[in-house]
Write a sequence for this structure.
């Protein structure tokens, strides 16, 4: 049984992680860290936790946690995962950061976009970007996994077959994404206040969202470009949609050569053949976010717009599932040599 | 392994039943019946079904089904469950009807409210009303279970401690319930059309909803009254709320004698002590529907309104969970002598 | 042209008041008070305000306001309306308080339920409870109007025909209300955070909501009981529904004598005959909140439940319309001897 | 007083048109045509219509209508507006078609995309594309106006300053739009069934939506290209968002030369200077759909993404307002030489 510790369990990602791990046959949560909630029972705080859960929130102490756990998941604000990573490494354990501290191989990019000095740059360089379908082998050998952001997960899985096979112009990637509001976290704000957010569509972070450099780095990794290389800038425009969960990314891309629908369909099906969590939809279906709620799936459709000579890619995930907690468990499964679908064989909640 | 057959699997209740059974360690779906979808793969039709599900919809033949299955779940329109019940009985198997055909011990009530002749009145009389927390022992011995309606489940669990202990005036029970729109089924209608239903509250079925006699019969059963006795009429007013899932029933009740909050709280906690799926909330929480999505829980709070001398009971469930498919699986667990929580140890999807 | 001043214009009620007054042919906003926003243009702050609005927020000074305005609307937190009422009276102007400071003729009730000392009890006693359909004549002669709360408006209009005509047992009034979340104001809170509030039904304030004594006082006024009389306590249970606007109150009431549907229908139609804003729905319709958005209507249906011998009353309003700003403008029209529908001849926004 | 006739008044666009015209000081509805509802009172059918509206639905007879009305609005399915246009022309009246029959100057495009033969091609050629901000002068002289589609309105207003001034590569226009579900009409369908549509994002019509050629024609008109010229194909991907009203279009565009934020901001502000209904947002705000509900505004923001060298344009409207009924009234005002804002000086319903 893998002994699991979670820091930041009171947030949405931490809660989803617990929900998945409660049903995981080979993992058991042994440490739930939360400064503000220490001493309280988890089931008394989180209304969706079943009554037979006897876990209590504890003071989140990195070393104590590393001692008692085989793996630590950090779902924490920027900067806060570092002491847990250091403690995990010292104790020979592994860390999966669902926050943002270990996603960038180039610490300078992290520091520029997140506006703080990275406290452990050498650890960051040893961390691996945890998108299993694209970088599975490197994850298997790592001790620190930077779990990808929600938007980058949907975007990179949607772009990978085209980028890997040089089928599009890299300098003309524009991404329009919409997300449910849980992506903005559990803290009430005007943009998430239901009377403002319901029946509303709102762009935000235009030309400056922090997932931009993460997507660019993902493309570099896909193409095998060294860390010091200059990334090709992409354009990324996120929006809020009036719902709790789900991300849909839509991309109109410019082909490098001749294409047909059949070629593109085959390209995607071949690329993801055997992948349990990526579903390439056929001619009669398009991705929707609702059926993915609570799952680790990514649904992708590719369409050839012959009139406009553009490749349209649509990629949907649950931002808290494949976009956060589900993918983190998938990474844990890889690190512990379990079948990747262990504990993730979940059907979506529908409707 | 319990071999399970499902009729009406393409509806919301059937879909939720499959979602739960996919994770059930002692049951396996072997027959998925749907006339209109026969020959198609379940995962090609239902977008929330995982890709590793290889089930196919088949012609729903009662006898073939009874032969191949240990238990048949019917999630069918009124009247349609009867042939499956007959076949199950012939083959010595069991039937759990999530529809309305086997909820009434008095067939005349069924016929009056549902407007059709019951094709197998003697089977109906042998059926048991499947609300486990209240009628567990009778369920254990039955072969045909009439799974309760969604509203009656929330109402009867909320009322039972008071009714059993004669703490309220039976002739003054008034129930106001709100339900998510999935309760009205998967067929598009004006009242479920999002532009009409979103941002709307709508009463319906005032003074005539078919769950009224079911609640009245439940109260008779609770009080041990014989089938031929006249029920005490209750008032039940259902409403639609702009959401997919969830039921909240609120009842202002008239006490038979002196009450205090402490007494009422103790009454409810004692009544449901040891019940895994009924949670009596403490002073600091009130039932909400959202955390219950995907679960088999019923959350209840009782409050003594000393000024107005009324007992306020609020009871929340997932209409597709404890109100339908979850409760059906709980009944199956009882019938097959499994721990009642088997396959139902699910945390709610939140947010 | 009536010169209007508004205090608290940055909240939802203030915003709705401006929206209505922009289209009012005989009133003109001349003073928009907001401490925090003083100096900013209204259209730069409130995104729904048209670009041709040149109003600026000003420091809210009671005397300056009373000098420049014919009527002051206060949409302010408890206690804050008093200085404006005093200034209005000094200057011979009128005040309509959409807050809670002038709703109670018995200051002790206000002080007990709102937890603060009333700074101008004698003004409070001279104020009139501004529910025009029930107390029109008294409003006409007043200088200070306490605009009713949203829930009490829906409840009192729904109950009035029965209470005035002694058709129900007064000691058995139980009210279940659901409200859109704008009723809780513009400040983000966990209960209004979309990921918590969407797809959720939540009771709150059980057996202690501050609209309870307001409803009780309304019933006293209806029955002509003196201020010092003891009110009959009612039971009132409010809930939040996952939507922005709208209130639906449902009441199962106990008849004092024999009733029929025809009698009740006639009672309601007669009682409200000629009232422009109360619509008694016929046999084929039930109140819904959505079509009322942006209007000053109250839609009411009454049904006789012959089986359970109960009268079911359902009453719907827009909580920001008839439940706040619309009714405030209706009161202004009365005070200034305008036709009551002036500026309120608005169709609902639908869908 | 302009005498107005409406065909298709029972749909959402027809309903919104009535809502606006009820408040129009110079227009009066005299004929409301609906085959299925003939003989019924409008206020008995449409729940948002005020009780003082005494209009009745009548058999929609083109000639009778043309005789009694100064202007006919058709909100009808494809093909159905033609007889009204013919009758209007015969009688010397004007027709504004909010449907699709008079949007295309090249009838072959209409026939190819809409799949039916145009019954009056010469009338279609004389019709004018009714986007006032771009083609005001031609509208003024016309008798038949093809009111633009909802998506094209948001897109063309967003693109016009760049296209007119040749600031972008025309062959690289990709548009991602999201719409509320009222855009799909009042007929219930699976994609609009609340349990399927709530909490869901759904693309549709990928690479084949009928608004594609309308946008392309709009760009041709903007550039003064003759009807027989070949349009530059654009890529347009619409989506459904879980809400009733509103469209947001987002476009990442490729600059023809050097740009700065200041230049782009000035370009847009200059282009739309004096336009009452187009609001170019400043640096601190981005378009949102919610504040536009019930209005005729189009809110646009333009951003220079210096890293990716792309121009991001976001354009929001109410699909039933500026995207349909509001714009139709604006066109009527132009045709009848009224100030364009007459009857459209409406603040948005918020929240």
């Amino acid at each position: 049984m893998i002994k699991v510790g979670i820091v930041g369990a009171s947030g949405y990602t931490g809660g989803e992680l617990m929900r998945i791990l409660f049903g995981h046959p080979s993992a058991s949560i042994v440490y739930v860290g939360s400064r503000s909630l220490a001493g309280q029972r988890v089931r008394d705080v989180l209304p969706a936790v079943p009554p037979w859960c006897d876990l209590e929130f504890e003071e989140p102490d990195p070393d104590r946690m590393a001692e008692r756990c085989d793996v630590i998941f950090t779902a924490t604000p920027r900067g806060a995962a570092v002491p847990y990573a250091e403690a995990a490494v010292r104790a020979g354990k592994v860390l999966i950061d669902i926050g943002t501290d270990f996603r960038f191989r180039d610490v300078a990019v992290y520091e520029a976009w997140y506006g703080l000095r990275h406290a452990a740059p050498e650890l960051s360089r040893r961390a691996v970007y945890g998108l299993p379908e694209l970088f599975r082998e490197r994850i298997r050998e790592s001790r620190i996994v930077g779990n990808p952001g929600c938007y980058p997960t949907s975007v990179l899985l949607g772009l990978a077959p085209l980028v890997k096979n040089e089928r599009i112009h890299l300098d003309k990637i524009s991404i329009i994404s919409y997300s449910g509001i849980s992506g903005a976290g559990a803290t009430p704000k005007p943009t998430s206040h239901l009377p403002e957010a319901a029946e509303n569509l709102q762009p935000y972070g235009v030309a400056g969202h922090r997932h931009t450099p993460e997507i660019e780095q993902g493309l570099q990794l896909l193409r095998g470009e060294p860390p010091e290389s200059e990334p090709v800038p992409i354009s990324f425009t996120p929006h809020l949609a009036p719902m709790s969960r789900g991300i849909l990314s839509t991309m109109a891309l410019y082909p490098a050569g001749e294409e047909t629908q059949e070629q593109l369909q085959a390209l995607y099906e071949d690329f993801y053949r055997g992948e349990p969590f990526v579903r390439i939809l056929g001619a009669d279906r398009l991705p929707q976010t609702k059926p993915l709620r609570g799952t680790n799936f990514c649904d992708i459709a590719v369409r050839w717009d012959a009139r406009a000579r553009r490749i349209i890619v649509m990629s949907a995930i649950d931002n808290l599932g494949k976009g956060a907690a589900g993918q983190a468990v998938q990474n844990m499964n890889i690190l512990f040599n379990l079948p990747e679908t262990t504990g993730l064989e979940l059907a979506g909640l529908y409707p």
